[in-house]
Structures are given as C-alpha cells and as structure tokens.
Amino acid sequence: MLLKTVALSAVLFVSTTGSALAAPGPQEACQAISEHAREAVALKKQGIAVDKAVARFSALPVPGSVPSAQHDFYQSKLPSAIKFAYMAGMSGDGTAAFYLKQCLQGS
Predict the structure, then answer these.
(1) Average pLDDT of 35-55?
(2) How far does the signal peptide extend, from start to end residue (predicted)?
C-alpha cells in the first residue's frame, strides 16, 4: 500500500509540475512553496477541502523572501504544490522536504 502511495505521489507530482527535463526552480520561490506545502498538510488534517486550501494560499501575497523575478514561477507552481501536499500522504516536514528537493532539481 505504501509503495502504491509513493508511486501515485510521484506520478502526480511529475504530471502537475512539468516534465523531468524542466529547468531547476529558483531557490527562494521553491523554499516558499515548500513551506506552503507543509502548511497544506496541516489544513488537510483539519478537514479543509483541497480546493479551499488552493484558494486560500493563492489569495496570499507572494512572500517578501521571493524576488520579483520569481513571482510568476511561484504563482504558477503553488496550486500544484498544494494539491501534491494533499495527495502525497506524507508528514508536513516530509512533504516540504520532498517538494523542495524536486523543485530545485527541476522535476
């Protein structure tokens, strides 16, 4: 069962964030998105629907730690990261670490 969950998570992540040949993501934007993914896991545990979580995070301003040149990247990747957090079945820390690693690699 765990293997199926991990495989499904990997497929979902790749399909929602682009191909494995994508360029590496920018450090600051990837870090901010991974933190939101961590927070999304907590929202899931509270029973908040994924669509409401995506809307909640999308309505927030781009964090000040993200340079303006990275805003488009941040805004385009945020919804898929939140959806990934809901589907992955990992802890908040695990989700954030996994997303950050994949984002920085460009997967």
Answers:
(1) 96
(2) 1-22
